[in-house]
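tokens incoming
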């Protein structure tokens, strides 16, 4: 197989698009070496034993094994194998790092094996898309026209394009995504915030459910001196939206969380009177769902110099308060080099990833161990000073499809 066309940890050319994982046009053949009288393995081992052998492999080896022959490809893609392997595999959340702004190519990072694998996404998304992930599926929405919406499994390369509403989303937009594990159905929420008059902002929430395959009637509300931003999350049936104060009162909170119950909405939803205050001036705030716990990552900003941050902090929502969990140690924070308020952060399970847009350095925080560490160095090389990178965290699962 040609270099760059396999899903491996070998080198990768950024100007080429590899076949990636489970490419739909990959040609699989059973090869028998008649000259040396090699006998196909399925003539020796029954199917159930082959399944057990493949299932005992690490996930990245299972993915490679599916490309060996037709028989193994059928085993790996069978519903029986998918369900069995989901219970057997204990995987840490992976990270996909975009290495190009023009094509969906990049590297997967497996924290268990501390290895990077070159690959590409199945749909034509870019590193600056709105991205939200849940339980192995990832949702993408384009940043410019905001009329392209995809849901995909990055490992199996299965994806679906969703039809958006007729009107474009103007102003500030945030994307949230949640998968219901028992039913494998998912919910997409798009939060729009548009300036209407003086200090008034119109907030709208649009909900899509995969089991009904329809967009529900949007919730609309007008807020005074508060607007939504670019970040929201669905956690335990509640949509959380990070909002920003646009007034001039210095004693007011600069940031806060508003809530919207997806199952039993009430008049108190998205109300400033019931907001959850953010404990300090935050830049580049990101909301994460870690095992149905709301976690916020943000740069600790300076009010006098809003483009500079003095640290990165993690908070967990407990009741109606955000409680500080950890801060990036100063030595690790310095490892990013010169950093302003622009960095990416995402997480799942018990891991949080933090990455500067201007570098490939990836910082990992283990919520269980309360430990910070660097990932293994990504093999991609920065080719010019203004080259940007980004990425997202997801749970590696084979059995989920869009």
């Amino acid at each position: 197989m040609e270099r760059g066309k396999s899903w491996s940890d070998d080198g990768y050319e950024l100007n080429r698009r590899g076949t990636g994982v489970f490419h739909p046009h990959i040609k699989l053949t059973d090869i028998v070496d008649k000259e040396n009288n090699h006998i196909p393995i399925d003539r020796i081992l029954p199917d159930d034993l082959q399944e057990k052998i493949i299932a005992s492999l690490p996930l990245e080896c299972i993915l490679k094994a599916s490309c060996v022959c037709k028989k193994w490809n059928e085993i790996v893609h069978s519903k029986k194998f998918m369900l069995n392997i989901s219970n057997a595999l204990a995987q840490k959340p992976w990270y996909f790092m975009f290495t190009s702004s023009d094509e969906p190519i990049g590297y997967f990072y497996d924290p268990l094996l501390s290895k990077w694998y070159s690959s590409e996404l199945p749909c034509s998304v870019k590193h600056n898309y709105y991205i939200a992930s849940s339980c192995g599926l990832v949702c993408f929405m384009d940043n410019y026209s905001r009329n392209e919406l995809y849901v995909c499994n990055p490992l199996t390369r299965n994806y679906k394009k969703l039809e958006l509403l007729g009107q474009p989303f103007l102003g500030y937009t945030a994307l949230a995504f949640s998968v219901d594990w028992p039913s494998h159905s998912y919910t997409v929420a798009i939060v729009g915030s548009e300036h209407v008059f003086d200090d008034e902002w119109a907030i709208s929430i649009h909900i899509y459910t995969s089991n009904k395959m329809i967009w529900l009637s949007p919730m609309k509300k007008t807020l005074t001196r508060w607007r939504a931003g670019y970040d929201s999350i669905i956690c335990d049936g509640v949509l959380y939206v990070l909002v920003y104060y646009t007034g001039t009162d210095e004693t007011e909170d600069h940031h806060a969380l508003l809530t919207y119950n997806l199952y039993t909405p009430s008049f108190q939803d998205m109300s400033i009177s019931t907001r959850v205050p953010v404990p300090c001036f935050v830049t580049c705030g990101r909301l994460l769902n870690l095992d149905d716990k709301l976690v916020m990552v943000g740069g600790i900003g300076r009010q006098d110099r809003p483009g500079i941050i003095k640290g990165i902090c993690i908070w967990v929502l407990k009741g109606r308060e955000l409680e500080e969990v950890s801060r990036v140690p100063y030595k690790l924070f310095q490892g990013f080099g010169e950093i302003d308020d622009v960095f990416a952060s995402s997480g799942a399970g018990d891991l949080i990833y933090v990455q500067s847009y201007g570098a490939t350095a990836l910082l990992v925080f283990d919520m269980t161990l309360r430990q910070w560490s660097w990932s293994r160095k990504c093999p991609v090389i920065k080719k010019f000073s203004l080259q940007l990178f980004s990425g997202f965290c997801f749970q590696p699962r084979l059995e989920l499809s869009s």
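note: The longest helix spans residues 79-88.
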